[in-house]
Known about the structure:
Blueprint: H1 2-13, H2 17-20, H3 34-51, H4 57-70, H5 74-86, H6 93-106
Amino acid sequence: MRVLLLVFTVLLYIGKASELFNPHFKPHCNCIDKVSLGRSTWKLLHDIVNSVEREKTPYFVSMMDNLGKIYPCEECRLHISEYIQEHPTEMTHEWLCTFHNAVNQRLNKKKFKC
């Protein structure tokens, strides 16, 4: 149930939840826009870390673990799982910035100061 709530929350956050209630909706299984998905995910994660109370950390840790299991991009899902196994999740700006930079480095993108 928590996983479904998490998925719905993420979809709602990126504006896709209404598609779930459309009877003609067909998932875009092999047509994932990784750029848009990544930007939306990073925005969500950074907003959570920057604005949610620290006592909610266990929920963030659980969410990151679940993203490693349900993220729409299979390659990204694997990278998320590997990263959090090697670097246990923390709901801090430093942890998320380091994770974001690790992804940016793998994608040959600009790294940011944490």
